[in-house]
Amino acid sequence: MERLLPADPSEIGGHRLAGRLGAGGMGVVYLARSPHGAWCALKVIRAEYADDPGFRARFRREAELASRLTSRWTVPVVAADADARSPWLATAYVPGPSLAEAVALRGPWPEAQLRALGAVLAEALDGVHAAGLVHRDVKPANVLLAADGPRLIDFGIARAVGATALTTDGAVIGSPGYLSPEQARAHTVGPPSDVFSLGCVLACTATGRPPFGTGGAAAVLYRTVGQEPDLDGIPESLDRTVRRCLAKDPERRPSARELRDVLGEFAVAEWLPEGLPALVAARAARVLDLPVPDPTMLAGPSPVDASPSPTRRRLLVAGAALGVTAAAGAGAWWEWGRSAASANTGSVRRSRHVVTLLGSPDDPSFTEHRRGALLAVEQHNQDTRRTLDLVLRNADDGGTATGSAAAAARLAADPDVSVVIAAGSNATVPAALAPCTKARLTVLITRADTGALDVVNTTSALVLRVTQIVGPFAAVIYLNRVVKPARTVVVHDLATEVESLATVRIITVYGKLDGGTSVEEVAADEDFTGAARRIAARPLDAVFFGGVSPDRAAACARALRDAGHRGARVAGEHVLGAPFLAAGEDWRIATGYTDANADTRTKAFAAAFRARHGHAPGPWAAEAYDAVRFAAHGLASVGDDGRTALRSELLRRPWQGITRLMSFDASTQFFEAGDDGGGFLFRVTGGAARFVARSADIGKKT
């Protein structure tokens, strides 16, 4: 538990806050005393996620679902307010460690205690399923250990069996390593999915390791779907039972009730392995000894309770009982639409358009996309002159082409989605084009620049940047206007030949450089020592690295430095990574994104971003901001036919954003570079890439 921050409220809904149990992107979980003096875990959702009525519907449903549960091995909702500015939910607090922590500290459990654990969790799931629910996130972190038995907690992503999802339809929700094959495939799940997860929990508790291994989520999901579990070390008497739970076919798994009968009755005496009772007691004593918390420094009403919605606040009271975790909500991630609180008020009637960001939440650039887009949506919805309202949603592509195609298919099938902003990478974005094109759903591509996008004139997509078709535009301008070398050596890295070929061709075949050129090819199994020596024989020649690997670019930079090369060195944005930033001092890098903090034309955006998010905007935030505003500009002109007519409208005339002029060639429908180029130049110095100029300004300020 952590101390309260000065900005934290002292009280929420009559509950005095004592400390922070955890925090994440969606909100904060506090340890609090109820008005009756009982300890509880109080989960507060950030106000920024709560303006969409769909979110509040989901949050209200979560409280109602949890209040249905009556098993002694699950936790009730003590109180909740779905209508507060920042919705909150309180559950009774269990002052014990999680099963995940216990296994990490004390190792695998003996057979007798393993059976007791399994019996209780099976009984808890039987109650969950009898209430018409599926938990969907059974894992060691969601099992708390109390002196009188374990508790299954966190129903944040539970769903009523057969209910229509309020989350993105088909999304993979749960924790890799413990979710079932049908969850991994984003299929409909039922009670057998929870049984599979319970089998994973028992296997991990018995062996000390997850049955499908560790590593990246994609690899774990792949093993879950297609490989057999690692059950080496499971007690022989439990091996068959656990294997039945982990059957790939849901119909071959036992029910929770059948599993409870197989594992036997729970006996509270000595149910915890040696060493754990003392840990549980110590945790309980630590909480019981807490003093009444001092007020925090926050002045005025708490940010949670301030400015409540007009809807009458509703308090759910389910009685006090032992309950939920310090890690409430840790296994679930939610993405919500956002609409203006003032939408469609008074006599003004506005159409509503959903803008969806497609990408991976694990990708840092996606986070910056989301923040920039959110600012654009909020500013748009605050404009009293607007003719439409925007809602921002996020769609997870899993970081793979397959995931991107599947997510795009779901978006294409959703008639509420007006436009998709593809924030993914070269590896994922092309896969999203086909399903969106079939549905005539406009896709605006901000980041990807692969040659696979050369077919945009036959799709419903528009690429909002210069791509590999014209090469690293700002680097070419820098060499022509500033350096003016007699010769530029293009280093063609064959380790990334396919990705590099377009850049090399632009410079050599199409002759975009004013001076002479030559090419040094470096094989994938070669270092750059030989090439660097040959280049350094003419030390003032410029070097254009035609590769995309940060590691290979770093090796090239070191080799050139060691060989004594003194000329200008340039490359494209894909080399920017920790290895290259450490080795590439004084290189110039052409990018498709600006530094909104240093670019004079984006200062107002940067100030608004800092005020909204509390930090400076990162790469792609300004580009996502422009993409949303560009879409809104088009949607305002096409009316109710926005989904199918938007792309044509956006192609019709140029539009000036804060990052670049959005203009497209009438015949090819590609982004028009023009004199400005829509690109940016950075310089690597001190281990970081620092903004130099926009393409149009290179030579004026460099």
From TrEMBL:
ATP binds at K43. It holds the Pfam family Pkinase. InterPro entries: Kinase-like_dom_sf (IPR011009), Leu-bd (IPR028081), Peripla_BP_I (IPR028082), Prot_kinase_dom (IPR000719), Protein_kinase_ATP_BS (IPR017441), Ser/Thr_kinase_AS (IPR008271). Residues 15-272 form the Protein kinase domain. SMART domains: S_TKc. It comes from the Bacteria. CDD domains: STKc_PknB_like (cd14014). Keywords: ATP-binding, Kinase, Nucleotide-binding, Signal, Transferase. Belongs to the leucine-binding protein family. This is Bifunctional serine/threonine-protein kinase/ABC transporter substrate-binding protein. It comes from Streptomyces hokutonensis.
